[in-house]
Amino acid sequence: MTSDHRRSNELNRRDFVRAAALGVAGVGLAGVSATPAVAARLGHDAQAAVEVVPHFVHVEVADVIESRHGDYGVVLLKDESKRYLPIWIGKFEAQSIRSGMRGLSSPRPMTYDFVRNVVEATGATAKRIQITQLRDMTYYAQLILETNGKQTTLDTRPSDATALAVRMRTPIYVSDALMAKASVSESEVDSLEPSHLA
User: Fold this and answer.
1) pLDDT, tens only, 127-149
2) Distance (Å) of CA 11 to CA 138, 163, 175, 181
3) What's the confidence (pLDDT) of residue 49?
4) Other CB atoms within 10 Å distance of the CB of residue 187
């Protein structure tokens, strides 16, 4: 595959952020028209020990930005170099990540609380989340489970994996290549919030 062909199938990080933030048709990320970030910076207290994973960088959930009309959100993952990876997610997932970060609970277990309970009841451990690639405007991720010393890799959406990770204090990692391609700097975070769209 030639480099020109690869470029034709991949957006660089600025084009990706701009396309998603302005709600370009066919983006496949629910579009974006973001408003000021919702405070959700409680961090991963009591998080599982962080291991070194080759070709991946450890990140934490820095914020969850709510859209102007509240119909979707953007989760911001930050590494120690203060690079931010923005991932556009659905309204329900954004709310679930925020509630998990704040340690909120409901009288009856919600979806991600139920999944956490299932994992714990089977004796498995959620070792880590790996966000591996961006392809056709869609992020891909993996959940690594360990049971009796045996690891199993499950395909998952980053939004679902993140909502589970904040409940289980599971470390999140992003591939080095993806972070280099799709991340934005701290000064660029505000540009994820476009001017008013009719």
Assistant:
1) 999 999 999 989 999 999 999 99
2) 11, 26, 17, 9
3) 59
4) 8
The pTM of the full predicted model, rounded to 2 decimals, is: 0.73
Summarize pLDDT for 10-37 with one digit per residue, the tens: 444 445 444 444 333 333 333 322 223 3
> Which domains are present in the chain?
3-192 (3.10.690.10)
State the SS3 of the chain: CCHHHHHHHCCCHHHHHHHHHCCCCCCCCCCCCECCCECCCCCCCCCCCCCCCCCEEEEEEEEEEEECCCCEEEEEEEECCCEEEEEEEEHHHHHHHHHHHHCCCCCCCCHHHHHHHHHHHCCCEEEEEEEEEEECCEEEEEEEEEECCEEEEEEECHHHHHHHHHHHCCCEEEEHHHHHHHCEEHHHHHHHCCCCCC
